[in-house]
Amino acid sequence: MGARTSAVFRPSTATWFVRGAAAIRFGGPNDKPVARDYDGDDRADIAVYRPSTGTWHVRGHSPIQFGASTDLPVPAFYLGDGDADIAVFRPSTSTWHFRSVSSVIYGASGDIPVPGTTTAIEETSLFGFLRLARGTSGDEKVTTLAYGNRIDRGEARLQAKAGA
Length: 164
Hints:
mainly beta, four-stranded antiparallel sheet
């Protein structure tokens, strides 16, 4: 998948449909799609996070166990090294766990994690009722953004934390 290619994952058949390419079966019905460029080749890799085992499956690579059944996958380019970083958000403790750097406690009960490397919001898009922010970080350090899902306030919080 190229940087600007559209794709969908159909959980019922564990099939990826990438625009302009043949359908690819990869993953399982309860897996979460987490396509990112995990190997730095400037192409998104087809990948899934399997909550039942806390395992990341990246097509063409060995599985990686990182996470727990209640974690939410939040892969992004946190370190700025050209490879997407495997990370999970643990709602029970509001903790962001990164495979390559120290964990960060950030957020509050009920918050929805928004992965990214953003210190300045450059663009937003609407997915359902949740407004997601994307941007870039000049210092290329770990940054987390948690979107407060409280309807009365609709707040967004941003915190930068330098990588280890």
